[in-house]
Amino acid sequence: MRRALAAALTIAAALLAAGHAAAACPDAAAIDRFVQDYRALKPAKSFGPGLSVADGLCAQKTIVAALSGDLGRPVGYKVGLTNKAVQERFKVPHPVRGVLLEKMLLPSGTRVAVPYGAIPLMEADLLVRVRDAAINTATTDQELLRSLSAVVPFIELPDLAFAQGELLDGGNLTAINVAARLGVVGPDIPVESSDAFAAALAAMKITMRDDTGKVLAGSTGAAVLDHPLNVVRWLAADLKAAGLALQPGDIVSLGSFSPLLPAMPAVGRTITVDYSGLPGGTRSVTMTLAAKGS
To answer: Which of 11, 277, 14, 6 has its CA nearest to residue 126?
Structure first.
């Protein structure tokens, strides 16, 4: 079953990439306006209906280039819409990708000023760190695991960016770099190339809670494309179809292991995400949300 799903993901990535050559970027003035609104934490206007994912990638390239002056060099990728519930929310039956920039990533324990975006959200996520370029041709779970050096606890802090009532579909989400804004990074968990480790990745329990003990969300590793490694498979295939490749040292955000939760109601709270079931015991990542200026 895993092989059939992997083949389906590869085909889907190829179909997405087939439209890249014919992509039509949104108007340059509209892209520039979005960049200015993003910097100002101001709700932005949508790029409108009819924007394909390929069109969105065209816009994304320009937006990422503009923001890299503020947020640093690209350090990897964000894969979005890897959770069925989130796909249904955005009415897109497949993942989409964005780019992570260096200054988007904050260490565990960080105090994050809110609002950090126009529409600030938070979710339980997970990073993987690429060990070598063999990941681009890996097929089996063991081959993929050998090409990864670590899995990393991660709280993503996305920004849906658009003003209320503006269209946010798959093309527009791709255009705005899959809502990448910030993320809080926990400790590396070394990867083992074994069937047992692959099984543990799918079965691990992920729990988001606040400092009062209230559980905000919970899921397992299987919440993203049935297995975290399937997200890596999809990304490698999608990049290959676009003439790109994962590089040693790249990090990849695997997507939503929880609902997208609004950050504003959690101001003043410390948020922790625990990952249990992997070798070495439970690991955690934590942050405190603070009102801007406090």
So the answer is: 277
